[in-house]
Amino acid sequence: MSRATVSYVLNDTANQRIPDSTRQRVWEAVRRLGYAPSAAARSLRSGRSEVVLLLLPDWPIGRMVGTLLEEMALAFARAGLILVAHPRAGNDRPVAEIWNSLSPAAVIGWEALESADEAAMQAAGVEVNVVLLGSAGSGSRGLAVSEQRTGRIQVEHLAARGHRNIGYAFPDDARVLTFAQPRLEGVRDACAELSLDAPDVQTVPVDIAGAAEAVRHWRAQVQPVTAVCAYNDEVALAVLAGLRAEALRAPGDLAVIGVDDLPLSSVADPPLTSVATRAKSLAAYVVETVLAGLRGDPGPPAPSSDILRLVVREST
After folding, report:
1. CB 51 within 8 A of CB 105
2. Residue 36 confidence class, pLDDT cut points 50, 70, 90
3. Residue 258, φ and ψ in degrees, nearest 5
């Protein structure tokens, strides 16, 4: 067959009278040869790459982030785009070389880029830059996904259970400050609005000895802490282990609430109350923001507060 005929079939070109038998022969050859269209050729034809580059920050990729990446990859694939995740740090190459090599249509980052990097990205032809956390530069779209709301939900739940003296279990990993600091701010703001004392903040490592030390501190105060908001479920599970080491139990001696709703949280002793994010809804929001940017349209409305949900179990 001629190249034109094959091209018309593969691209489903309109107004071409090609017999069904010919179309079937082309698609049979595609299946037999395992043919896939050239991404580079499509980019030349359309004038735009099909790659969306996600810059991974220098912190541990937990279950929540992993699930979000999976949902985003699926949603972008349905839109004909390919999500490529790449570490932003931890390598010897300048960050600008990453997008210069991939020529992505859009770049997604958890944190805003330096102004020089953002200018270089725009000069390289990247059409859309989306920032998930924090404020974005003049050429970027900031989502400002609210981690403060997570902390607020924790405090609101504990206050509804009658707790007035609240502690906060802060992580000992400096790499997660992007999440931990705004969550703590949300806890502090909620305590102030509910006329509670400021939270008693203790750094809690994910080990029994360190967690037990934090538990002893909370219990030894003139007004003992009766409930703890933990940065995430891992830190919350450490607090539960620290309670057991002190021959104490949740929630009678100290109520505990985490974040992320890890699978292990439901089988903890006792099962852990947690704040979970609806990953599919968040992924859809991020993807639609990127697609709107590529179309030149305004972004979608911010997701409502129900993107977070409280999973209540026996620890509170």
Report:
1. yes
2. low
3. -110, -160
Residue type at position 200: D
Per residue in 58-70, pLDDT (tens digit) is: 766 777 788 888 9
168 three-class SS: strand
Residues of the chain with CATH 3.40.50.2300: 48-144+280-307, 148-277
Q: Which of helix, strand or coil describes residue 225?
A: coil
Instruction: Give, in degrees to the nearest 5, the angle at Cα 87 between 55 and 83.
Output: 50
Helix residue spans in the chain (DSSP H): 3-10, 20-33, 39-46, 63-78, 95-102, 115-123, 148-160, 177-193, 208-219, 233-245, 279-295
Euclidean distance between CA atoms 250 and 244, whole angstroms: 9
236-259 pLDDT, tens digit per residue, is 999 999 999 999 999 999 999 999
Topology annotation, domain 148-277: Rossmann fold (3.40.50)
262-265, long-range: CB < 8 A, 24+ apart: 262/63, 262/233, 262/234, 263/63, 264/233, 264/237, 265/233, 265/236, 265/237, 265/311, 265/313
CATH of region 48-144+280-307: 3.40.50.2300
